[in-house]
Fold:
Amino acid sequence: MRPFLYAFVLLATLHNNLLATESERPNMLLILADDLGYGDLACRGAQDMRTPNLDQLFAQGMEFTNFYANCPVCSPTRAALLSGRYQELVGVPGVIRTHPDNNWGYLNPKATMLPRIAQDNGYHTAIVGKWHLGLESPNTPTERGFDHLHGFLGDMMDDYYNHRRHGNNYMYHDKTEIDPKGHATDLFSQWSIDYLNSRRGNEQPFLLYLAYNAPHTPIQPPEDWEQKVLQRESGIDPQRAKLVALIEHMDDGIGKVLSALRQNGQSKNTIVVFTSDNGGQLNVGANNGLLRDGKQSVYEGGLKVPTAVAWPGKIAPGTQTTFTGMSMDILPTLFQAAGIAIKHPIEGRSFLPILNGKKQDPLRTQLFFCRREGGLRYGGKTIEAVIEYPWKLLHNSPWEPLELYNLQADPQEANNLADTNKGMVNRMNAAMRLQLQKGGRIPWQRPSN
Structure:
């Protein structure tokens, strides 16, 4: 064979092998609920809840009973999830909002977002739903690693049907502002189905990030879903009924998305992850199980979230683990499953061996949590926590003393040991100060023009 012809055949063979490898890479479907309580699924113990689709998803894969959101509020957890880093290290220690005087984060334009790495490794990337990491360039989804956007740029919607925030329309299809009709949950579910249908038969693997705004306030389920709960659950508190209906409505939408995945023949090679960005909001009726407190708080009820991962033929169904993970560990895990290397430093670590039924050392010896916020409750300061199991040191208010708990003996955080274990307080507080110093090196406000 002539040398140039041999080289051509060799290159063609390598190209075909590369395509075959890419076609075998798993698709990734990451579903994020907004403010879903640790106990607010039927499979997590909610007696007044009917969530058959998420119950089935949890039963088809591995449930994590000790999984932590990176932060007890929205933007920081999303920043950690998509960067694989502690949120303050990418400039998002607090919630990104419309008005500068109430804004507590600015996604570092230089931070490498993991969807970009998926793009660079042959994945088609899409976000459907809530972004909440920036309202304008350079921090819009299509500039930060997503090929496709169909969703909402802002924080919360003031109404699930008109999709406005402070009178602003943040709903976009790629780079075009849109004004669709319908309940946001229905729209996000249908747009995800549309995306999956558009990828049917395409050998290029995809990463779909489906980020619902349910069950975030306002607690506004469709009327027929609310009436169904009221009729079924005799004596239920009306406020709780609304939240149950909003979650059940989301569950129904997730069921339709998973059905489309099956009908398109995509489910056999798709890793599905479900989690929440933080714990449930107690004053609207959320159920965080036996955990203390909820959203906004660095007690366990604000940080622990219902989480499951399913992958047909790879993850044994009906399995459960107490292994500890955080939001920032999810994409590194999916990337390892896909053979994608992350070549820059991140704090996120893969828990793929656990998914494969193998033993694995803890991902880290210390878990840090930080949240910055304004108003009279926080004054622009931070609250924070560090876990070095079984010990947890936390500062849940800038105006209150440090608290220390032994999570093994006291998972409900009822017995504060700070006064009787000063040595542990001092040691863990020193570690927390170092973490705060690291975050302090990263700007978290948009530069002035």
About this structure: The domain at 367-440 is CATH 3.30.1120.10 (Arylsulfatase, C-terminal domain). The chain has two domains: 26-355, 367-440. The chain is about 30% helix and 15% strand. The two ends are 64 Å apart (CA to CA).
